[in-house]
Design brief:
155 residues; mainly alpha; two-stranded antiparallel ribbon; 2 strands; 66% helix; 8% strand; elongated
Length: 155
């Protein structure tokens, strides 16, 4: 299933499903600070790694679009482009969109599993899900009305 997503993502939005354990550990460190150098990250990792390994990992995360970097004297300082929650939202969105757009995965099965999982986790989340569904229906209805008005005016 991971290959399904890798095939459909460009380099800039590939981050949600291609992070390895070291990249995740590095992101956790970067998310905890406003800016980090390679040395800062290497010092905070839970295992000793070569400076060049940490540097390569940060560079890879930068190229994936998860980090921003700026030159500070002779080193780069890295900061997150997305917060942890923004990244998690993007990750979930790519997963759900991918499942919904693939005809091999029935949409009703995904929705059923989502509702079951939410209900088992927290009943209050079901209320939140229902509220978001009503809100999305209103947005869609407003867009449809606006589009009809535009078509009527231009006809």
């Amino acid at each position: 299933m991971i290959h399904f997503f890798k095939d459909r993502m460009t380099a800039r939005n590939a981050a949600p499903f291609t992070l390895g354990p070291l990249e995740i550990a590095v992101m956790e460190i970067v998310w905890s600070r406003p800016a980090s150098s390679v040395h800062d990250v290497a010092a905070r990792l839970d295992r000793p790694l070569a400076y060049t390994t940490v540097m390569t990992t940060l560079d890879r995360l930068y190229k994936k679009g998860l980090l921003e970097r700026r030159k500070s004297e002779r080193a780069f300082l890295y900061s997150p482009r997305l917060s942890r929650s923004e990244w998690q939202r993007e990750q979930a969105g790519v997963l759900v969109s991918g499942l919904l757009s693939d005809p091999r995965h029935p949409s009703d099965l995904l929705i059923s599993c989502l509702v079951d999982a939410v209900g088992q986790h927290d009943e209050g989340l079901l209320d939140e899900l229902e509220r978001k569904i009503r809100q999305k229906r209103k947005e869609i209805t407003r867009k449809e009305i606006t589009n009809r008005e535009i078509k009527r005016r231009t006809s």
